[in-house]
């Protein structure tokens, strides 16, 4: 029975990694628990280096080693633990899609040290947004996402241990054509691969495959197989989009004679036509490549701006929380008072002739760790509808609500901003501030009248929310409007288009995870405002003819329930 091409590629990738683990750095397998995942993990057990499993919650002490405070206190002498980074080997990271930026940086540091470590990422993400950090994936040579149903009945076969050892010994003697790297870089550019690691990893893959095949120099077949294994997962565009007539050689460029030969060992890589390699890589690209890239970039942008949160636990600053038992590390500091309080009742029972010289006898179970809760600043973004004949009264109510919120800002650590939209656009009238004096000065004169560009107001609120998150704040939207939009983003009056634009932008704000409240200021609450609130994922408050005190009290209750 003919073996599936996907199974062959997985076997060859694992075999190349077994030959040169320190050079190829590792492999990503994106597959949930299945026969394919089981076959892959079974094959890992037959690798020359015994795999060691780690998880996203691994500590720095386990990775890099260091002083074991608990054991040192128990034995009365310094006790040092060895870390995984001190012994080269194959690390298998389970649930890799949950890897945080801090762990990704530490693992990258281990890989970049070139001490012979290799990393296997077992990615169990169910959606495109759930994936290991791109910075970590870029360092690993191979990315496998099996979809072939025939793989369910296939076992992965690796070369015999003796063959792998022979290939390892002969790896340093493999000759490489001089033009191989130039060809690999040009191919990477055709597919929009801007990382220089890709051609370097492809070349090392070609050398490892050549050593496995017991050849003396890298040939055309090894180069083609290497680019098929390394490039498809890194491509950011289809090759047709990269073609540029300006890059073609001029027609009068002299061609080398047919009998020209390369000096050195082996044939030149340039003898392999570029289009053959391009077609080989393109055939392996997923048809939804562009859609995947959009999702990945959106997830990356959200990750970059997700530093804000209403609560963040740590061990450095913030409101103290009760200490808890645990194992000390660089991220978890000991609470000396709580630790001594825990050990004090047992001193008489623990005293022996051997430890009589020690003033205090502390066991690992006595250790207590400090905990703090750091609350990030919250930004209340008041987005006010300043259109129509009642704009003056509406803005006066908003002004009073903002001033009441500012009066409470010091105790609640809130900042306040004000956006007004009218006519054909929106304007930031009050930048984020806690200063009541500055707020009154900027709120002294608020213009009103004109159309209702609700979409423009939501766009302004979205941009301000993103900016606030970049500064470590937690934005919250307070939208005061009747929901009757009539000016779209194009600026031309069109009620249907304006409503559609507003709902689209509102859905985008909801995807950003910005909480909020919509205050319906219409005399008679209508379905339009409820619809916008639903798209925003915000609480809906119907407050016709509400004054500033009622708005402030209702918004505060809605945000804190």
TrEMBL record:
One of its GO terms (molecular function) is magnesium chelatase activity. This is Magnesium chelatase subunit D. NCBIfam families: PRK13406.1. Residues 320-329 have a biased composition (Low complexity). InterPro entries: BchD/ChlD_VWA, ChlI/MoxR_AAA_lid, VWF_A, vWFA_dom_sf. Keywords: Ligase. The lineage of its organism: Bacteria, Pseudomonadati, Pseudomonadota, Alphaproteobacteria, Rhodobacterales. It holds the Pfam family AAA_lid_2. The keyword Ligase applies. Residues 379-559 form the VWFA domain. Residues 247-257 have a biased composition (Pro residues). It comes from Roseovarius rhodophyticola. Belongs to the Mg-chelatase subunits D/I family.
